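name: query_chain
kind: protein
chains: 1
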Amino acid sequence: MKPATTTTSSSSKTIYLVRHAQSEQNVTTHRLQRGDILAVGSLMSLGYDAPVSKEGQEQLGAARERLASLVRDKGIALVAHSPLQRAVATANAIFQGRGPPLVERQEMYERTVSEYFAPSLLDQRIEQLREWIASREETVIALVGHGQFFKRCLGAPRVMENVQVIECSFNSVTGFGPFSSVFDGFEDPNHATTHVLGTSPQLSAERNGKS
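structure:
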């Protein structure tokens, strides 16, 4: 992925990545993984823009309470979210009425089937997002979106949990940097293990005095 080319007076920023709450697609995919063939029909009827599930709604209620001081404590000045309804619902639940404006970014939708075969297409969308972040005057921005999209942004080994919040550095030249989890979120039913995406290897090495 090429470096972002747009710069502002402040090239270094702090970014908070927030994955959406559990969606009906998450639940149905888990059914399919367990061998429920009927889940295929459910996935087709849901389409790409699946809503938050009933459990996802409960996650958002709990997260709004537990993240009540996130904006104040972290100094978040702007929130950008995916256009898909599960991300919109998550952004509204956590950030609406708490100060920063909420804006929609069209390029932040989830990874598509074609992008698994042609990752450069996904990288183009991530590059658009990076250029937008670099062009903003705000130095602390929250992004509310999707697991595979953020996984690619970070070069992470696994997808974030539902409503997990990751803090990472951002540089207008190199893009997204080392990351750590500030809220572990709720287990995604699609995950075979309960290991939470935590600290990036780069940041772990820095904290231990390694290059």
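note: The two ends are 23 Å apart (CA to CA).
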